[in-house]
Amino acid sequence: MKKFIASVLVAATAFGLVACGNSGSGDSAKSDSSAKNTDKKEIVYGKSQGPYTELFEDAIVPILEKEGYTVKGVDLSDLQTADVALNDGDVDVNVEQHTAYMENFNKSYNGDLVAISPIPTVPAGVYSKKYDSIDDIPNGAKVAVPNDASNTARCYLMLQKIGWIKLDENADPSAITQDDITENPHNIKFTEMNSMTIPATMADFDYVAITGSVVYNAGIDASTALANEDIQDYLVLQVVVKKENKDAAWAQAIVDAYHSDEFKEYMKKNNDGLWWIPEELQ
């Protein structure tokens, strides 16, 4: 309904401009709107429950406010919803996804999102309520992994790293599926499920593979991980905006804040081992 009303208003405005014979006014209005979005001093971010939004609020927002920006959060239920809001222009930025997830969203939803800066990242890990070591894995073990494409791939890569499986050498690392498993010596039975529901079902599995944000949200002690992934470039969390805004002053202000000495000092004081920090932010 909102889109319909908006369309009617746009059409009415266009008709009025033509009737008045002012052919240049439309282009001028677009230029003014673009300039306002580039130079604006209010930043609206998609707010999700998790470590990345909290880090943004605790460490980055104060820096932006010192630069004269007003920063407001909009609560969104999940990352897909957050990306739709970002792509539709309802929010300006989010800090909850890696490049692999963003590219999958762009492909699936004809999105126009781009990454403009890496940020500290919490690695995925292997956890268990039944075993104290990855070496204790029994034959026929039940293992839960996330079911969203990019995080499914990263968790299978992690399981290959620890020697549980082998993957097709020719498979795209960012798009690996269960079909790419070429060797499964422990006869692992995999269950792919919504990553947010995995912590509550840990007791039903021998092991679970879960991403850092889910570990954080579930209140799981990250130090209890029996193994962690190697962070690949496409799995590093990013500041994400619409392509048309990537060079905006406010977007660059966010990038500068993550690269600032103030942020580096914050991380030195507040990193208890949870965070993997990209080299350029150290």
From TrEMBL:
Keywords: Lipoprotein, Membrane, Palmitate, Signal. GO terms for cellular component: membrane. Residues 1-19 form the signal peptide. Belongs to the NlpA lipoprotein family. This is Metal ABC transporter substrate-binding protein. It comes from the Bacteria. It is a lipid-anchor. InterPro entries: Lipoprotein_NlpA. It is found in: Membrane. Gene3D superfamilies: Periplasmic binding protein-like II (3.40.190.10).
